């Protein structure tokens, strides 16, 4: 395995007696695409929330890029290089695509988000740097021709791509994607899967993603971690995980 970028050690989290995560340990190597799979309620979203500081683990710790934390604020996580998309659309529907992408840089500069999108304010050089970065990412994700389209008027598949652009614009080392293909048809899933592979292959971004479509996971991920009731029941290459009897019993066996 490549050198780890992210390591979890004995991470536990509970909600009023429900164990969402139980002594969970695993590592994600630099440059990997790691998929988290498991049945509904297995703890996948809770895990992403611990990694980027939305939840604080009850026990255990996380090591990211060589630095250990028990709790971290989401803004701090973003500054350290942990980007995130959400399961449910969290875009500003009435703003344009490029304005939404600029929102991903809102906490990076000296000017405010409002100053940046209305192109006013203190730091012209920074404003142009951010605009250039936003357009670079839009170009990379094939969204440039939609840059000035109001987000709510775009088809769902493209809105998910804008969400990816917003997470990617702030130079993340680690990108956490919470069901980036949820609600998509097969063609849209294939297109999103190719984009994620490009982000990983061409930008070198390490990716942890939650995905329910096993066919997509097996084709896209280098590494699969399987959760069941907050516990890890599988951890390895897609082929190794597919043949693991515990995984078949806990999860893969239940999808047919
Ligand atoms: N904010 C919360 N308050 C109370 N319980 C929660 C909360 N978030 C998650 N849980 C519980 O923790 C467990 C793990 O939930 P989580 O959403 O992390 O699972 P998941 O694998 O992401 O599920 P899904 O595939 O349905 O999104 C579940 O039992 C869930 O009900």
Note the topology.
Layout: E1 4-15, E2 18-29, E3 33-37, H1 44-51, E4 59-64, E5 67-69, H2 74-80, E6 82-85, H3 97-103, H4 113-117, H5 124-140, H6 156-168, E7 174-178, H7 186-203, E8 206-210, H8 214-220, E9 223-228, E10 231-236, H9 238-243, H10 245-250
Parallel strand pairs: 3-8, 3-9, 6-7, 7-8
Antiparallel strand pairs: 1-2, 1-4, 4-5, 9-10
The structure holds adenosine-5'-triphosphate.
Keywords: ATP-binding, Nucleotide-binding, Transport
Domain ABC transporter: 6-254
Pfam families: ABC_tran, BCA_ABC_TP_C
Overall description:
- The protein is α/β, with parallel strands linked by helices.
- It folds into two domains: 166 residues, 3-Layer(aba) Sandwich (Rossmann fold); 81 residues, no CATH class.
- It contains ten helices and ten strands.
- Strands 6-7-8-3-9-10 form a six-stranded mixed β-sheet, with helices on both faces.
- Helix 3 runs parallel beside helix 6.
- The longest helix has 18 residues.
- The radius of gyration is 18 Å and the shape is globular.
- The protein starts with a strand and ends in a 6-residue tail after the last helix.
- The mean pLDDT is 89.
- Bound molecules: adenosine-5'-triphosphate.
- The site of adenosine-5'-triphosphate (ATP) has 11 residues, from strand 2 and helix 1.
- Adenosine-5'-triphosphate binds next to strand 2 and helix 1.
- It holds the Pfam family BCA_ABC_TP_C.
- It comes from Labrys okinawensis.
- InterPro entries: AAA+_ATPase, ABC_AA/LPS_Transport, ABC_transporter-like_ATP-bd, BCA_ABC_TP_C, P-loop_NTPase.
- Keywords: ATP-binding, Nucleotide-binding, Transport.
- This is ABC transporter ATP-binding protein.
């Amino acid at each position: 395995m490549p050198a780890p970028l992210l390591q979890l050690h004995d991470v536990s989290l509970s909600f009023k007696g429900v164990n969402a995560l139980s002594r969970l340990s695993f590592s994600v190597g630099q440059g990997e695409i790691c998929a988290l799979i498991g049945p509904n309620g297995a703890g996948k979203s809770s895990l992403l929330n611990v990694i980027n500081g939305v939840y604080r683990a009850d026990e255990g710790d996380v090591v990211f890029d060589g630095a250990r934390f028990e709790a971290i604020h989401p803004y701090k996580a973003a500054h350290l290089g942990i980007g995130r998309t959400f399961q449910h659309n969290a875009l500003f529907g009435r703003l344009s695509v490029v304005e939404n992408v600029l929102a991903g840089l809102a906490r990076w500069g000296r000017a405010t988000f409002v100053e940046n999108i209305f192109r006013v304010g203190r730091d012209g050089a920074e404003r142009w740097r951010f605009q250039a970065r936003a357009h670079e990412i839009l170009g990379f994700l094939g969204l440039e021709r939609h840059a000035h389209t109001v987000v709510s008027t775009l088809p769902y598949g493209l809105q998910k791509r804008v969400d990816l652009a917003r997470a990617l614009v702030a130079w993340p080392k680690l990108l956490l994607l919470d069901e980036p293909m949820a609600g998509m048809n097969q063609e849209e899933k294939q297109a999103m899967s190719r984009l994620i592979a490009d982000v990983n292959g061409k930008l070198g971004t390490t990716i942890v993603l939650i995905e329910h479509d096993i066919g997509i996971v097996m084709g896209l991920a280098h590494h699969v971690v399987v959760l069941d009731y907050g516990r890890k029941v599988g951890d390895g290459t897609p082929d190794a995980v597919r043949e693991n009897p515990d995984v078949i019993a806990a999860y893969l066996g239940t999808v047919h």
